[in-house]
Specification:
Arc Repressor Mutant, subunit A; 5 strands; about 260 residues; viral genome packaging; single chain; Terminase_ssu; Terminase_Gp1_N_sf; Prophage terminase small subunit; alpha+beta
Length: about 260
């Protein structure tokens, strides 16, 4: 199997760029190039409110899969994709590159395969033993949503344009010089520079690209409730939580149209 395919499995399970680069003896830029070229994307952003410990989870699961000689490479990929969203149709589509209609049938059939089913059960048990859920994880995710801005996702350039009327005539100032206006071109930052967990929705509207971040106010309300909960139990603890999140670079809701 190609290195990038093996590396994708590690990436999907949370391994960092530098760890993947070290494991496959390539540069970090090569790993980022693989991610961009082959469209690597971890599970839906909303599911990232629960963090795993990559160095503990990924190697164990990859070793578990590699040791299983009862599964084909595509079946192993199916197991990994299924664990991300627990959707057999989507997992089959990504692993086999099949159509939706085929995947809807074959996904369920693949999931019922005794060897695949046994492997998924073992991997789920492994994940359950290695996933750590803490209030700190939840607080940090809400903080990301509360303090993010469109500047984390979008960039822009400003250029000058000559002002014309509806007939294409150039407007002139009192000294007969063309009148100019400043126009901003708004565009997405490079994919590998965007924290996609900040993005709730992205689509192309009639006027261009629309990017929507998570609701800042809802995130702030959730943070306030968490802080109040801790204050009821321990005033010092609540203060510490708020101190911790103030230093983080975090997220909110907004939408922006790219002209």
């Amino acid at each position: 199997m190609d290195k990038w395919k093996e590396a994708e499995k590690d990436y999907l399970l949370g391994m960092k760029y530098k760890d993947i680069a070290s494991k496959y003896e390539v540069s970090i830029n090569t790993v980022k190039s693989w991610k961009s070229r082959h469209g690597w994307q971890r599970g839906a952003p909303i599911k990232k409110s629960v963090h795993t410990k990559p160095k503990k989870v990924a190697p164990k699961i990859i070793d578990e899969l590699e040791a299983n000689d009862k599964l084909t490479e595509k079946q192993k990929s199916f197991c990994l994709f299924y664990l991300q969203q627990f959707n057999a149709t989507q997992a089959y589509q990504r692993a086999y590159g099949a159509s939706y209609e085929t995947s809807r049938v074959e996904g369920s059939r693949n999931l019922a395969n005794p060897n695949v089913k046994e492997q998924i059960t073992r991997l789920k048990n492994q994940l359950h033993s290695d996933i750590y859920i803490s209030v700190d994880d939840v607080v940090k995710e809400y903080a990301k949503q509360a303090f993010a801005s469109l500047g984390d996702v979008l960039d822009y350039k400003v250029h000058k344009e000559i002002v014309m009327d509806n007939d294409g005539n150039v407007f002139l100032d009192t000294e007969d010089n063309p009148v100019e206006k400043h126009v901003a071109d708004i565009y997405l930052k490079p994919s590998d520079q965007i924290d996609w967990s900040l993005v709730q929705e992205i689509h192309r509207g009639k006027d261009g690209l629309v990017v929507k971040l998570y609701d800042k106010q809802k995130a702030l309300d959730s943070l306030t409730k968490l802080a109040d909960t801790f204050k009821d139990k321990d005033d010092n603890n609540a203060v510490q939580i708020l101190d911790d999140i103030e230093g983080d670079d975090e997220d909110g809701t907004a939408s922006k149209t790219q002209e």
